[in-house]
Write a sequence for this structure.
């Protein structure tokens, strides 16, 4: 079993999501002592505070996956200059009931790919704002604002040569960040 278990949270439910492709590809650049598992957010109900005392099974499952993880990897699109509602919904669910948030102290990294030129910069900044409030220590540098181009992925889904060195560096810094927070 790998030493560091990472929960991957993808902010898109789309079948052919670029962000899911990026998540699947970047984890292959990680050191051997890391393993990654996607925490599904598509089956979470819309958050309703009335349900705090009896959270849905999918919410309990999601919270337990976050709780069990040593670190978090967010890979999200930008929707209307912020994060998609499904990602905000997941953040809210796992922060409640009051006093029972599972986010606190989980080291995190934030990545995103979009077809727009600013490559999810605004969405990532909004996400960082929420993560700061939730006491999630988040890797600051390097920032990774990835634009979806035809060359971003190879035919086999690996990261293309134009972005590989940068994303390898990103992963190196992320791994070091997680390890530092797990000491
Ligand atoms: C509701 C909606 C809002 C969007 N808003 C933005 C945006 O603010 N900035 C941007 O760069 N792209 C925006 N896009 C385009 C997304 O970058 C593009 O759909 C991308 O493929 C979504 O990520 P995915 O492939 O992982 O699903 C938007 C797309 C949708 C569906």
């Amino acid at each position: 079993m790998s030493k560091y278990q990472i929960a991957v949270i993808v902010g898109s439910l789309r079948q052919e999501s670029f962000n899911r492709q990026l998540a699947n590809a970047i984890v292959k650049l990680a050191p051997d002592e890391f393993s990654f598992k996607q925490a599904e957010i598509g089956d979470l109900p819309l958050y309703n505070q009335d349900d705090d005392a009896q959270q849905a099974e999918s919410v309990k499952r999601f919270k337990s996956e976050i709780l069990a993880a040593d670190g978090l990897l967010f890979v999200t699109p930008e929707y209307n200059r912020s994060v998609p509602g499904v990602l905000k919904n997941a953040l809210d669910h796992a922060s409640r009931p009051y006093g029972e948030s599972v986010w606190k102290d989980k080291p995190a990294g934030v990545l995103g790919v979009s077809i727009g030129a600013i490559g999810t910069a605004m969405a990532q900044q909004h996400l960082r704002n929420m993560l700061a409030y939730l006491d999630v220590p988040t890797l600051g540098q390097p920032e990774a604002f990835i634009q979806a181009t035809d060359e971003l992925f190879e035919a086999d889904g690996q990261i293309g040569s134009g972005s590989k060195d940068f994303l390898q560096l990103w992963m190196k810094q992320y791994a070091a960040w997680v390890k530092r927070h797990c000491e």
Remarks:
- Strands lie at 4-10, 34-38, 71-75, 108-114, 145-147.
